[in-house]
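We emphasize that the prediction below concerns an isolated chain of 148 residues; any contacts that depend on oligomerization or on bound cofactors are therefore not represented. The input was used exactly as deposited, without trimming of termini.
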Amino acid sequence: LFLFFKKPYIQFVYIIIAFALLILVSDQFANLIKLTVERPRPCQINYLLKEMNFIASHCGAYGFYSAHATNSSAMVFFALLMLKHFNRYKHVYGLYGLCFVLLVSISRIMVGVHYPLDLVVGYLSGIIFAYLFYIVYRLLESKLTKKA
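Result of the prediction step, given as a token string:
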């Protein structure tokens, strides 16, 4: 968000609102899918508990798909789409963003609350949400600038 702070104040506020709505929608959609699919998390499977040393003492009810992976990939991909127009260091930020998403994902597996497929579906979902929000943001931005 610091990179967007250089923009005019009202545009910065719109970007923050877009980020907040993106996280809200992507997170709630992931929770809806979890409640629909009802697949248990790895930390709830007895034979896996005997074979592995999970960090989590308690985990949520269902795990497909990862809201953490969805939210992190949505934030990073949306930011990169927004940066592609005005920042020459977007490749460096993309690398940092990718590292952030991978660290979040590894933590989800290490804690024992997600399978790798949960993360892959979360990535794809986050990228789709980010792209849709980017399209809507650009459409709204063009309409608002025409009025001004």
